[in-house]
Amino acid sequence: MIDQRILLLLITGVSAVFGVTGSTLTGDFEVDAQVPIPVKKSQENQADVPYVPTPQRVVNTMLELAKVNSNDVVYDLGSGDGRIPITAVQKYNARRAVGVEINPRLVQQSRNNAQKAEVSDRVEFRQQDLFQTNLTDATVVTLYLLPDINLKLRPKLLKELKPGTRIVSHRFNMGKWKPQQVAQVDNKYVYLWIVPKNVPANLDD
């Protein structure tokens, strides 16, 4: 017969693995909400940035600061549940949007959210390391990463993005690269940069 303490441990372990799912309304579109589950990840799927959703009002401010319009291709690096790419197409009429996310569960959740919002034909989600993503066709890039990741990413952005491309970051700046504009919403900061034609030498490292 199984000891009651062992049985309790087994039940607790199973509950932790499966978690709970539900649905939550962000204000502009409905997304699947899932309770975070602490799961060991393989090295190749390990995210450098913990998933923290960007509030919808901040999402709107980011896209408005970048002046997203029907000519734009928006890339969101670390796209989480997909709310920025979906909003870019659904509310700001971006021509196309791409979300890049390393967590396969979040990628699937994003695809489900895009389908519910009826924008799957213009929104793509890639399970990919953002440092391996080709950004050359982007006209707008959005970020909610970490300070050290922003700095590490800066040379790639300046190398691959065309002059005039807008970069918008929630909360964290780009070190020596001073933003063209800063906005504040709900005590949160949003930074805007525009890729220059000639990159200053002190930014190219």
Keywords:
23% strand, two-stranded antiparallel sheet, alpha/beta, Rossmann fold, seven-stranded mixed beta sheet, SAM-dependent_MTases_sf, disordered N terminus, 5 helices, 205 residues
Uncertain runs are 1-27, 29-45
Shape field: globular
- The count of DSSP E runs of length 2 or more, i.e. the number of strands, is 9
Number of helices: 5
The span between the termini is 64 Å
Main β-sheet, spatial strand arrangement: 5-4-3-6-7-9-8
Number of domains: 1
Highest CATH level, the class: Alpha Beta
- By CATH, the topology is Rossmann fold
- Class of secondary structure makeup: alpha/beta
Q: What's the mean pLDDT score?
A: 83
In CATH, the homologous superfamily goes by the name Vaccinia Virus protein VP39
Helix coverage percent:
25-40%
CATH architecture identity: 3-Layer(aba) Sandwich
Radius of gyration: 19 Å
Largest sheet: 7 strands, mixed
SSE string, helices as H and strands as E: HEEHEHEHEEHEEE
Description:
The chain is globular and about 45 Å long. By secondary structure, the protein is of the alpha/beta class. The strands form 2 sheets. Strands 5-4-3-6-7-9-8 form a 7-stranded mixed β-sheet, with helices on one face. A two-stranded antiparallel ribbon has the order 1-2. The chain has one domain (25-203): Rossmann fold (3-Layer(aba) Sandwich), CATH 3.40.50. The protein has 5 helices and 9 strands. Residues 1-27 and 29-45 have low confidence and may be disordered. One of its GO terms (molecular function) is protein-lysine N-methyltransferase activity. Residues 69-189 form the Methyltransferase domain.
